[in-house]
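Note to self: keep these together.
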Amino acid sequence: MALSYNLGFPRIGNRRQLKFALESYWKGQSDAGELDTIARQTRKAARQYQQGLDLQPVGDFSFYDNVLDTRALLGVIPARFNQPADQTVSLDTYFRVARGRAPTGENTFASEMTKWFDTNYHYLVPEITADQAFRLASTKLFDEVQEAREQGIAVKPLLVLDLAPEWQQAVTRAYAELAQAELKLLLTTYFAPLADNLALVSQLPVAGLHVDAVLGDSLDTIAAAWPQDKVLSVGIVNGRNIWANDLRVSLNKLKPLAERYGDKLWIAPSCSLLHSPVDLDSEDRLDQELKSWLAFAAQKVQEVIILTRGINQGEAAITAELAASDARVASRQTSKRIHNEAVKARVTTSAGRLTWRGPGAVGQAAAVPHHHHRLLPANRRDPGLAPGSQGRQPRRAGLRGRHQGLHQTGHRRTASPGTGRVRARRGRAQRHGGIFR
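Structure:
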C-alpha cells in the first residue's frame, strides 16, 4: 500500500499566534517561557492538522529560519555574537544572528538574508570560516523529537538533502560514508528537474527519493530510472501555491507508479507546506466561489490523504471527493470573474498597436510580436525618461544618503549596500520575521 507523507508544515499558527508571540518577546513584553508555551501549542496544532498522514515531519518548526537552526545545532555562530565555545546557543543569541538585536546581548549586524531558491522565503546565509569548528551546540531538534514522542508520534531519522550538480563527486563520497550508519536516507529534491543528475542519484546508496511532480522531471522519466525496490516519494500536491489540486488528474498520474512501486510509493506535497497559509477554514470573508478553488496547508494535507486512499482502495473510495474536485475545475474554467470575453476581444484586436519604450526610443510606436517585450514605462536607467522624471534620481540618491547608517527600529534592518530592490526585499522579509507568509 502507498503511504501518505508530508515534508513540512507552516509554523506561524492559523491565527499568526507565533508571529505575535515573537513580536511580544522581542519588545520585552513577555518572557522566554511564554514564547515557548505558544511554540509548543503551535507545534501541537500542526500535528493535529496532519492527523491521518502515515508519516509526519518532526523538526520542521522554527522560531525564525531552519537554516539558522542548523547553524545553531552545529555551533556555526560568527565571533561578533560572542558565543561561548562551551555553551549551547541561547535563544537571544539565535535572535541576534537573525535580527542583530534581542532582549539581551549586545546589538550588532545580523547575518545576510537571501531567497530560498526562487520562492519568497528568505533564509540566513551561513558564515563559515576557514578554521570553522563544528560541535553540538543546540538541543532544539532533540527536544522536538522527544516532544513528538510524548504526543504519540513514532519518530524515525531521515536525512533530507538537495543535490547541487557541482557537488556530484562529493555527494557520492558523502553518501558512501552515510550508508555505513543505520539510517534510512531520503534524498529530497524540489523546485526543478534532476535532469542530468538523475543517473547519479539513481546510483546513490539511499532508501528513497522524493521528486517534485509539479516542477520536476516527468514521472515517466523518474520511473524509468529509479529502482523498484526503493521508496519513491511523489510530490503531487503543489506545496507552493494556494490552489486546490485537480484530484482526478493527480490520481491518474499516480496509478502507473502504484503498479510499479507498490508499498514503496509515498504520496506527498511537492515541497514543504511552509510556503502556504495554514488553514482555509480561518478565512471567513471570502465568497464561496473563490474559496472553493483554494487549498491552504491543512487542505493540502487532506488532498494527500485522499489521493493515498484512492490509490490504496480504488476510485470508488473517493467518489465524492473526485466529484467535488471536478466541479471546482469546471467552475474555474468557466467563471466570468477570470474569463472576460470582452477583454479577450480587446487584447486580440489591439495586439498590433501596443507600444513600448526602450533606450533612445521614447514615444516611438513599435510592433510587439512576442509577449516578453516590455510594455511598461521606461525605468530610471533608460536614457529616455518619462516627462517630469528627470529630477527623481538625484532625489532618490539624497533619500538613500539620508538613511545610511540608521540603526534598527522595530523590525527594520539597517540600510545595506546593494540595489534598492534588494534593500526593499530584505526590509520586507525582516519586518515579517523572515519566515511568515
